[in-house]
Amino acid sequence: MTERVLVTGASGFVAGHVIAELRAHGYQVRGTTRRPVDGLDDTVTADLSRDEGWAAAVEGCDYVMHVASPFPNETPKSEDDLVRPAVDGTLRVLRAAADAGVKRVVLTSSLSAVTSGHHDQAVRTEADWSIVERIRAYPKSKTLAERAAWDFSRKSGLALVSLNPGMVLGPLLSSTVGTSVQVVRRLMTRDVPASPKMGFAPVDVRDVATAHRLALETPAAAGNRYILAGEHMWMRDIAAVLAEEFNPLGYRVPTGTLPTLLVRLMARFDASIRPALDFVGRRELVSAEKAHRELGWTTRPLRDTILDTARSLIDLGLAPNPSKNSVATNS
């Protein structure tokens, strides 16, 4: 009998790839959305801010992958606008899963629940947690939501696995550009004149999707956290990869470095820049060895990930070639 998996937030970037991975391996997939989405055969309307819909969503499902979570492009006016929906929404999904007797829940958390708020440059592992007293709304929401999930798991006996991906890049499945992919888009379109000294630990969305399936299928994964991330890269390193490939084709990807003092000054006047300050001057040093060892997880080269991200932006018309636009304008 084919097993059924509920994927929350089915219209999202990561969720879309998770759904494709599950389907490719023979699972039936049901998705939750806040509104109907084209291309999904089995969907249930459910909102993380409301109780209605979640019992129907998990009914008949063997597993749940809770991928949905708010990820704003700028800092919210109040922390609670982000923290409460993340925590309360996670608990709504877990309660419904426990009541329905699902075999396992795989929670998409974040590296920001591991590395944020630490002032030293130690290599972080799954034993580390972000320090909520020192961090902004988004990492706080991910940290508190994951902690709430583990508390619920311990009290209820619900089998839980959490996955903590770094900066998720890779090919888009729609024209909606999330916060992580915006870094690549802004370099390709030269929305930024140079790269702030911002550090990331990127990971390919396709590899993240594979990890979700492995977390579901690996018996010993229950009760564990897994970091999903590659080696540290500065934003300038990402720009260099893009420039090498695309500048000969007419793009003008900037390869210089933006002074940190200027970035901090800009953030005072532009709220969309403020969340990025957490990454300025900081190396994102983590180990994904546990996922490789216990899940048998493998990753593709980060260069391929960066280039595939850019190519999908081009294909979707989100990063048009400036030289071709110039030719069209002058013709």
From TrEMBL:
One Pfam family recorded for the sequence: Epimerase
One GO MF annotation is: oxidoreductase activity, acting on the CH-OH group of donors, NAD or NADP as acceptor
Q: What InterPro entries does the record point to?
A: Epimerase_deHydtase (IPR001509), NAD(P)-bd_dom_sf (IPR036291), NAD(P)_dehydrat-like (IPR050425)
Domain NAD-dependent epimerase/dehydratase: where? 5-224
Keywords of this entry:
Oxidoreductase
In the record, the note on similarity to other proteins reads: Belongs to the NAD(P)-dependent epimerase/dehydratase family. Dihydroflavonol-4-reductase subfamily.
Protein name, per record: Cinnamoyl-CoA reductase
